Amino acid sequence: MESKVSRRLKEAIAPEVREFIFVPRLNREFQANFAYLTSINQAHLLMLHDTGLMDTATAATLAQALARMEQEGPEAVELDAGREEAYFNYEARLMEIAGRDAGGRLHMARSRNDMGATVDRMKTRTKVLDVIEALAAVHQAALARAHDFADVVMPGYTHLQPAQPITYGYYLSAVADTLLRDIDRLNLGLGRLDACPLGAGALAGTAFPIDRQATAAWLGFAAPVPNALDAVASRDYALELMSSIAITAVTWSRIAQDYYVWSTPEFGLVEFPDSVASTSSIMPQKKNPAVLEYLKGKGGHMVGLLTAAMATVKGTNFTHTADSSRESMRSFYEALDESQRCLALLRLIVDQARPRTENMLRQARANFSTATDLADALVREAGMSFRDAHHVVGGVVRRALDAGIQADLIDTALIDAASEEELGRPAGLTAATVADCLDPARNVASRKVLGGPAHPRVLESVQRQEQARDRILEETRRYRSRLSDAARTLKRQTQELAARH
């Protein structure tokens, strides 16, 4: 029994090759790629006819056959792993409908290599646009809550130790700034994949006088990929976009880690509704942060997918190979799909998390996070250098800890004693000054410098980010509109060609 797709190969595909490579590949790819293959075939057909490379009668027959296949859908194609790939199975069905001669003429001036590269870019741009929208939804939720909670004072942390008072709204505005960069990175990556490989052939173009600009336009691309070898050899746009997704995943994992810690009874800073939690099979009191653990785990998964894809491509030659163009892209598409799910869950978490405002304020009052403001006051009003003020306040904190005094109960006597010990003179701060420094709400309100947590600055950040996000989303809206316009033109002109039969 010979190969079903080549007279060069005198033996049929081995059962192991069929079952382990081609059956899974067909099941995975044919339905997912069918619409893209149809559009590519239609664009190529229109170009062949317009350039005079195919007569009208044959072109009309093929246009009708492609329209029928599009209407029937992928389910109407009987898949045969003996034909190896999605393309050969598609072509076999086309030849059944249009006839062997007409159906066999469509593959003039192209290869599976440039078709596959084009499918990848078409599929990628659609999925990336969806990921951008999912990220924008998280960003919008974060900014909405940043606005709502701009006055909710909480401890800020470095090294997971109390650092300085901030607000919960300020934290969310910082998260949103990071997410905005994630959106921008993906949007920039969209621009770099906006070129069409079709017409590159196997790797060296074709001797037929085709019009690559025309097929690129019908498929919604800004231009053809300039170099035919690069067009089929490179999937670096996928590695770039997957890198951006991995960076986003690191961000959502870190956010999840904050919530993971803050929602424990020991911190008691935020709480979640029961609808985003799970429980224990044995411990009836448990409310486990299932969604947060999922997000953290998937963060590592995204980094692993990127590493797997890059390691796969690293050892390939700079040309078309199945390992570089298929296995690496499997990781990429998995990353795109997983990221959409994770971003939907992240939006839910950001939207549903509620600050425990009294606990937040109580901890910010008691945990010495206001100490920096006290040091600043010694610089301003006691004439100390900051390093001396740092030593004095360090001594104050040590005395307070030894005496079991929480931060908001520090008084002038304690400060003067520490100053006498360090500098040989009292600090001389007034009780009112000390009270202001140790009040976390006043502490936050005083930090009005650009980037600070004061209420007006948080609201400015929200407004700035909303405008920046809207500008990016307007770009992606125009991108989607261009794709829709090109698709409508392609389908209309294919129908017009079919009508000439």
TrEMBL record:
Intracellular or extracellular location(s): Cytoplasm
Which EC class is the enzyme in?
Answer: lyase
A matching Pfam family = Lyase_1
Q: Which GO terms describe its biological process?
A: L-arginine biosynthetic process via ornithine
Pathway where it operates = Amino-acid biosynthesis; L-arginine biosynthesis; L-arginine from L-ornithine and carbamoyl phosphate: step 3/3
Q: List the Gene3D superfamilies.
A: Fumarase/aspartase (C-terminal domain), Fumarase/aspartase (Central domain), Fumarase/aspartase (N-terminal domain)
Please give the start and end residues of each transmembrane region: none
Report one GO cellular component: cytosol
Which part of the chain is the Argininosuccinate lyase C-terminal domain? 368-445
Per its record, the protein catalyses: 2-(N(omega)-L-arginino)succinate = fumarate + L-arginine
Q: Which UniProt keywords apply?
A: Amino-acid biosynthesis, Arginine biosynthesis, Cytoplasm, Lyase
Domain Fumarate lyase N-terminal, residue spans: 56-304
Under Enzyme Commission nomenclature, its number is 4.3.2.1
| Chief place of localization | cytoplasm
Similarity remark:
Belongs to the lyase 1 family. Argininosuccinate lyase subfamily.
Please identify the protein, giving its name as recorded.
Argininosuccinate lyase
